[in-house]
Amino acid sequence: QDSLPAGYVVRPLSRTDNQLRSNTSFLKTLEVLTTVGTISDEAFLARFQYLKDHSDQYYTIVIEDMNVPATLAGSATSSSPSLVTPGRGKIVAAGTVLVERKFIHELGMVGHIEDIAVSADQQGKKLGLRIIETLKAIGQQVGCYKVILDCSEKNVPFYEKCGFERKGVEMGWYV
Ligand code: ACO
Q: Which of 3, 31, 52, 143 has its CA at 20 to 30 Å from residue 37's CA atom?
């Protein structure tokens, strides 16, 4: 397995990962996927707490670049220094595995990989691969008999590199 660049760490999402740090927050990182919208700190914390209360079901991880202290990372930090945790770096990648508990397969469990995001300027450094490898390992450790995901056609080569194979067809119904 490829090692992370020096100073990069993989860790669980933390409640401080949405603090105002210009382009360095968790929610900013998710913007490579789709619209994230305006989410207050309070709303973020409420959702974070929900995940925490269901911590055997939601595993959200991030990669943090510790080479870039948050206090130097963006203009928003200078206008709101109290919101910055000193010494922390910036979030550069994120992903979730959601563990579903089934009746079939003798009460089997399935891991669903969701919302894989690597910041645009950090793509191609194997960070996506590392996020997926970590989520697969979590799924395996908690006892999932498979880990699955939906993706667009253009991401198929990436997921094949991560050890996945085409299976079934994704269907969607949008409200
Ligand atoms: N086409 C072909 N190969 C690719 C592609 C691609 N689009 N993307 C990555 N790869 C290859 C890399 O070349 C590398 O191959 P190598 O080991 O032979 O060198 C391997 O896959 C691993 O690539 P990483 O460097 O780990 O990829 P990266 O860190 O850039 O992450 C990701 C890939 C997550 C798709 C990233 O580009 C991204 O965030 N894109 C925008 C958001 C997105 O589409 N997320 C996935 C949505 S699907 C879901 O969430 C379940």
A: 52
What one-letter code names the amino acid at 55?
Answer: S
pLDDT at 3: 87
* Domain chopping of the chain, boundaries: 8-161
Residues touching ligand 1 (Cβ under 6 Å) are 32-33, 113-118, 123-129, 149, 151, 154-155, 157-158, 161
Q: In the prediction, which pLDDT does 137 show? A: 98
- Fold annotation for 8-161: Aminopeptidase (3.40.630)
The number of angstroms, rounded, from the C-alpha of 156 to the middle of its chain's C-alpha atoms is 18
Under a CB-based contact definition with an 8 Å cutoff, are residues 134 and 10 in contact? yes
Q: Which atom of ligand 1 is nearest to the CA of 116?
A: 50
Say yes or no: ipTM exceeds 0.95.
Answer: yes
